[in-house]
Amino acid sequence: MPHPIMYRDDDPGLAELRRIALRFPEAFEKISHGRPVFCVPKMFAIYGGNAKADGTMVPYPHSLLVKVDESERRALGQDSRFFYPMYLGPAGWLGLDFGAAPVDWDEVGELVDASFRLTAPVRLIRRLDGL
What we know:
The chain has a domain at 29-119: Alpha-Beta Complex (Aspartate Aminotransferase, domain 1), CATH 3.90.1150. 29% of the residues lie in helices and 31% in strands. It has four helices and six strands. It has helices at residues 14-21, 70-77, 105-119, 122-128; strands spanning 28-32, 35-39, 43-53, 56-67, 82-83, 93-97. α1 packs across α3 (105-119). The protein starts with 13 loop residues before the first helix and ends with a helix. Keywords: DNA-binding. InterPro entries: YjbR-like_sf, YjbR/MT2646/Rv2570-like.
């Protein structure tokens, strides 16, 4: 049974996230589990997610999920805009809630860039760096 679609094309921040994510070498978008996912071919950014608090699922429909370096994870986790996403959190991912504060798109670009570098093949990272 396919997952229901859990976003709309006019959702807050989705167009800007697409602009940022699809500029990376060989990046493409697909729908996975009802959400836009940006891949190369491994996923490096996801629009929307959920967290669990006190046994209850908390939806973050307008958010960004990215893989983060372990050295940055603790600092980012102290920021109230970030959340620990269900299922992907244990694999090193964090979520940024677009509704928690005005979105700093430069920061989003840096987070997506770092996530890309943690997941993309070396040849695509070299291509990104112009090597």
